[in-house]
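I'm stuck. Please check this protein.
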Amino acid sequence: MRLKKNKFLFRAGILISIIAMLFNVKNTLKLIYPMHYSESVYRYSNEYEVDPMLIFSIMKTESKFFPYAKSRRDAKGLMQLMDITYEYAGGDTTSSKASIYDPDTNIKVGCWYVKKLSDEFEYDNDLVVAAYNAGPANVKKWLSDERYSKDGEELEDIPYGETKNYVNKVLKTYERYNKIYRD
């Protein structure tokens, strides 16, 4: 009898928890869209004057906040930086290859790079995110090609399927972060 009562209480507790979560959707969404490494993200997004929600969105999409993530193209860390980008930003990959995986360092360099792209593409998030994925030279090439841009300022289409999907995913994630944390 006592075992049945304990099972009932356990199941009731789970049901109450599920109902509470359903009624508190915002907290549930915060579990799905976390703000890991927020101290570093806010520090460097402030230093480089970039939107922290965009940084969280890139990190979630790129690495799902796993600091030791490594892509098949050898991008590394939370923000999936290429060695060449890391070196361009002033990081020294020869003396400390592991530092590209250091969350604070990776976020700092990632914010620096997003700022550089933001300045280059006049803070147009579509172009910034496309350039983050495919490189600024490709985005400039697409902007000058009438098949992809009618006015040379906005992309009507992105010829790389991976980049098109990436931009859509990052910008949807960005919308969600803004809705959850700024509304």
